[in-house]
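pinned: reference chain
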Amino acid sequence: HGSSITHSSQAGVATGTWPYLVATALGLNHTNLGYGGNCIVSPLVARMIAATQADYLSLCLGINVLGDYGPRTFRAAVAGFILTVRDGHPRTPLVCVSPICSPPREHTPGPTGMVLPTQRAIIREVVEHFRKMGDANLYYVDGLTLMGPDDMDVMPDELHPNAEGNRRLAQRYLSVVMPLFGLKLSAELTT
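pinned: its structure tokens
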């Protein structure tokens, strides 16, 4: 689940999206709930995910709600989203990925005063809290490890990876996120 970055609107073709490339490389079936401009930490989407059969879950949260939530309300929304997903998937491996790099949004506060580093910290804190409470199958991945400041060559609008950016993001997802699920690709991604 995620925003236009997960929707992969700049991938060029459906078979070039990073979620497709990751799933295909590992022989997995996937459902992409990437909603361009609409990844708003919606309780209804969390309920839909909770009701859907899944062996692995990945949530890319944050960037679409930069101007909608303040720190307190964002923390509660993320915690509530995770808890709702956990209602249907109490032990399914679940990774929460914070926003990837977007230079115009890194340190320019939205209407609520939020910036991307604050969102990353809040998502990490919520995940760490639930892990301390015993959720050993919940993980946090900093989005900057997937697409950081050095990746602007494949992000022409400083937000959405282009076709080459989707391949790069897929390769990093395969090497950073999927091993948390116990899944590893034995060679480089080929496209």
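why pinned: The radius of gyration is 16 Å. Residues 48 and 85 are 8 Å apart (CA to CA).
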